[in-house]
Design a protein that fits this description.
alpha/beta, 2-enoyl-CoA Hydratase, Chain A, domain 1, 6-stranded mixed sheet, 3-stranded parallel sheet
Length: 250
C-alpha cells in the first residue's frame, strides 16, 4: 500500500502524521487508519491533546484518492469509500481531546473537511483551499456538515460553487476555517508548540466538557454522514464523472 499513518506520544501530545505520495490524497485504507488513530488517542491517558499534520510542504491533503475513485464500480463500493471520510469526521467530533491541525500547504476536498473538523488550525499563507467535488461531478456531501458548521452556509455555498477556484488562506482565515495564519513556518511552529504545551497541561475533564459544548447539535451526524456517503457513492458511478476522473489522472 502506498502512503502511511504514523503516530507517537511525547509530553502528553499525541502526534498523528499522514502521508501519500500523490499530494497526500487519502485512499480508504488510510482513512480507516486515520480514524482509528484519532479514536485510540482519544482513550489513551498518556495523550492530553492531539496534533494532526501531513508530510511534505506543498499540499496538506488533496482529498479523495483519484485512483480509488476510478476503481469504484458499485453503489455499495462507493458508499464504503466515502464512508471512510465519514469515519474520520465522526472520530474527530467524538474525540474528547482537542485536535490541533497544522496546514502547511493546499487543502482540497476532503482535506478541507479535516481542517473544518479540527478544533484549532494553524496555516501558512500558502495554504489555499478548494472544494473541487462539483468540478468532477460529485459534491462535498460527507464533509459538508463540518465545513458549514465552521464557516457558515454562505461561505460553504461559495466554496462549493466555485469548485475549480482556489480561495486564499486569508479568505479561509476570514471565514473561520483557519484559526490563525502565518507567513513564516518558523513562527507558526513556535506558536503551535506553545499552544500544544499549554493544552497538554490542561484539565482533561474540562477539555472534554468544552468539546461537548462546542459540538452541540451534531449528534445526528452519526446517521447523516453515512447517508451523504451513499449520495457521493452513487454520483461517482456516472459516465461524466468517470471521464473527468480519467482526464485528471492523465
Amino acid at each position: 500500500m502506498e502512503g502511511r499513518i504514523t503516530t507517537s506520544i511525547e509530553d502528553g501530545i499525541g502526534k498523528i502524521v499522514f502521508f501519500h505520495p500523490k499530494s497526500n490524497s487519502l485512499p480508504g485504507v488510510l482513512l480507516d487508519e486515520l480514524a482509528k488513530a484519532i479514536t485510540d488517542f482519544g482513550t489513551d491517558e498518556k495523550a492530553k491533546v492531539i496534533y494532526l499534520l501531513s508530510e511534505g510542504d506543498k499540499t496538506f491533503c488533496a482529498g479523495a484518492s483519484f485512483d480509488e475513485l476510478l476503481s469504484i464500480n458499485t453503489k455499495e463500493a462507493g458508499k464504503a469509500f466515502f464512508s471512510g471520510f465519514a469515519k474520520v469526521m465522526l472520530a474527530m467530533k467524538a474525540c474528547p481531546k482537542f485536535i490541533i491541525t497544522k496546514v502547511q500547504g493546499k487543502a482540497i476536498g476532503g482535506g478541507v473537511g479535516i481542517v473544518a473538523a479540527s478544533d484549532y488550525s494553524f496555516a501558512l499563507q500558502s495554504a489555499s483551499v478548494k472544494l473541487s467535488e462539483l468540478s468532477i461531478g460529485i459534491g462535498p456531501f460527507v464533509i459538508g456538515p463540518a465545513v458549514e458548521r465552521k464557516i457558515g452556509v454562505a461561505a460553504f455555498s461559495a466554496l462549493s460553487i466555485h469548485s475549480s477556484q482556489f480561495q486564499s488562506a486569508q479568505w479561509a482565515f476570514d471565514k473561520g476555517l483557519y484559526s490563525s495564519i502565518y507567513e513564516s513556518e518558523e513562527k507558526l511552529d513556535e506558536e503551535l508548540t506553545a499552544l500544544l504545551k499549554n493544552l497538554s497541561a490542561s484539565s482533561v475533564v474540562a477539555t472534554k466538557k468544552i468539546k461537548e459544548m462546542l459540538w452541540e447539535g451534531t449528534s445526528h451526524w452519526t446517521s447523516l454522514l453515512p447517508e451523504r456517503a451513499a449520495i457521493s457513492g452513487e454520483l461517482v458511478l456516472s459516465d461524466q464523472t468517470k471521464e473527468i476522473l480519467s482526464q485528471f489522472k492523465k
